[in-house]
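pasting input
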Amino acid sequence: MTKVDVESLDTLEEKLTKEMGYDDHFHEHHHGDKYQSNFLTTYIFSTDHKIIGRQFLITGIFWAMMGAMMSLVFRMQLGFPEADLAWLKPILGKWIQVNDAGIGKLDPEFYYALVTIHGTVLVFFVLTAGLSGTFSNLLIPLQVGARDMASPLLNAFSYWFFFLASVVMFLSLFLSTGPFSGGWTAYPPLSALPQASEGSGAGMTMWIVSMALFIVSALLGGINYVTTVLNLRTKGMNLWRMPLTIWAFFITAIIGVLSFPVLLSGVLLLMFDRSMGTSFYLSEIVVGGQILDRIGGSPVLYQHLFWFLGHPEVYIIILPAMGIVSEVLSVHARKPIFGYRAMVLSILAIAFLSFIVWAHHMFMAGVNPFISKFFVVFTLIIAVPSAVKVFNWISTVYGSNFRFNSASLFALGFVSLFISGGLTGIFLGNSAIDVQLHDTYFVVAHFHIVMGVAAFFGMFAGIYHWFPKMFGRFMNETLGKIHFWGTMIGAYAVFWPMHYTGMAGVPRRYYDGGASFDAFRHFTELNQFITVAAIIVFFLQVVFAVNFFYSIFNGRKLTNKNPWGANTLEWTTPINPGHGNWPDKIPAVQRWAYDYGKGGQEYVPQYVPLREGEHDHGH
Amino acid sequence: MTALFIILCIILVGIVLVQIARVVELIAQVKGEREVMRESSWWNAQLSLLFLVVFLGAVFVSSYYYKNELLGYGPHAAASAHGGAIDSMFNVTLFFTGIVFVITHIALFWFAYKYRWREDRKASFIAHDNRLEVIWTAVPAVVMTLLVVRGLDAWDTIMSDVKPDEDYIEIEAIGQQFNWIIRYPGPDGKLGARDYRLTTATNQVGQDFRDRKNWDDIIVGQELYLPVNKKVRVRIIAKDVLHNFYLPQFRVKMDAVPGMPTYFVFTPIKTTSEYRNELRKYPEYHKPYDPADPQGPKRWEKFEYELACAELCGKGHYSMKRILRVVSQEEFDAWYKQQESYYMTQIRGKDEDPNKGKILDIDPPAEKSQETAPAKTETTSL
């Protein structure tokens, strides 16, 4: 790409947009933006999707750091149970028990609280709000060619409900009985009975309130994303011309809108059981010597309701990452995404199947073994569309002119992690193998690699790729590459060994890592290795955070508005797009988003009309 | 002081990193964009290749090193009749996924290396290939079908309940915070009825002592025994919150749910001493059991089957351990004979006894009830 090309393309774009662009008379009432007139309305209570996206991202980064620090504390307990943690007493207070010898130990109740809150905030606040919230908000209007979301106000509410949920969850950390400690899945009766665990008292109440607020946020966001994609596409942007990012966000939003209400009903019933004496989930319980008069409920009912969201939730996490990776890989490979239609169809297939596999989390929960069989079948079928996606990503790299930068490296890393983590899902989805592996470290390794680290890699790819669009500057590439290679090696170093402990049968959620069991305790060195690797990976994320915040103010500035030579519409907006994204008409779309290297041209943006007889590949 | 020093070091390393990054950026501006891209492309392509080699190498070396932890390898072959099906299912899956893992990783990183950015390279315009799509949809589908069929076949055998005419023993495992209560049926072979509302400090299980099947039921102490090669049906239930009855060596795992009894049927096929002799073949089990006592017994000599909890149940979740001894039928019978009826030793004649003052309609093992009762469930309320 030479400079002349960029300029000629820019002129062409201006000309084409003037001639054929969609005119919504935006410029006529653009004089003075009454919605964004001061600092407060521009940066805090903004209704601009680009600001809201950044708000989601920065809140997500905050929670990611919190969650990571929590994991370091419990990893210390698992790797170095003898270590003196008295130095943490100023922060953690009574949760560090200092014995007579002055050695500080982590309180078991708080160990479980850390594990629980780590899971909850990473799954919901970071990988749902921080990932889907950020990029759906930023990219949907920009890539489909819309001025903003269908309802900018509801969109702002979506962020502020998330913010409230964050505040409630954060405050629950300061309760004298501690935050909720019954695992992120919050299975009753443990979560329903304050007598059964300290964290099931006020901590659980706040957990439920926070979840309810979060679900409101997810629904407001989701409805907005779906409406925007369906109604606000620019001229010529039919569904088969949408970039895969938009397909992924669109389908993700549909999954969320259909499944989050079920979680809400699940936790509301739990709330009734806790405070109104109902027995939806409780039956025949004797706790702490007290005989409860609750009869007829079933804890398994909660598990059904929870996983009816819980399983689609993992696709809510991974689909946006997949969309981002497809787009980033294609742009930096300078080559169309291989099998665009297959990619869309596999997203649809995964989304559909995600609703009928939930009970594979419950093979060992006492559900009818016959029912389990259906879930085995559907679960293993998901491997097929997932495999198609992997093969298509690899084929996209084949024959490319692959630009290595932080964004494309993280996209490559995502594919590797998705393969590694996806394959172990084939073990766990088969109920017979799950008998042994259920609730062991094998599961921990599986889901951390496939939806934890992989989704993070998708998120990082997206941040490095769209940072220039968000802030008009580049992130530092050297730090980005250190971040990538360190995290790639480090993440595998943390989670790969857990497969071995899992195969040996070591159960997860053991405060002492299984030290009291002969069968589980011979992994001392391995646990130390994992902990050291986790600490190193944490500091690499600090490098990322430094790079991120430093680059917002001091990064290299963009000199042209399409720095990657990408086809999609967000790169036709000015370097620092204002409210409404395009100063004048919205460009009209003439072709699909993946004409890279077509007919000898390095890239053909979406606003360039098809030549005579030229085939539009999206169709 | 050390903490402060470490924090200072970290900050210093951070500053150095940022400065290096800035310098590299400045050099890049001097060199020009093309040159930087060429260098970065070369370096990262080499690193991709290096990563591929090191990663796959580490995977193979570590799985060789930990091969004895893999299901069905080394000492950890299943000790139950159905466990072999799980282990072989695991290995069939490992075979197929292993092939895919290696091939896709080589392709991914090799292509990235081979097609690294070069100024003169033109990416080929390959948008799709329907034949390829069909192939790589069909092949995984066929493999998955195979795995599903085999898996469900194994699942059927694992989950099948006992048939009425079968010879088996039934025991009951009751999970509570934070231990297991194990109840044996006694000479009549039948577990007595229970009702959670009858639970008291002495009647931990809530046995209904009006039911004569309860009169000979046994609640065992820290160690439980099972005869080898005899089918066991474990009736699993929880008193307070969810627990999970988990016997790792037997590939047994089932949730204990309050208000909803579950079960797991399995047949132990290796006695504890047979399993110890298996372990003896492996050098890592010749290390001392207690590292502080190098002259003491070796790991294989002290091996015991353990019962654990595998469903988060509160802060003592990690400590719900019991010892299980699998012995020959004769040893089991001898042990079983020594066990005392809980009712006869702990309840009979006390205020709690609903049959107080009545003559029981069985041959009461009167001579037994005189002995001191070894069986007592300890209750830990943490």
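fyi The longest strand of chain A covers residues 96-98.
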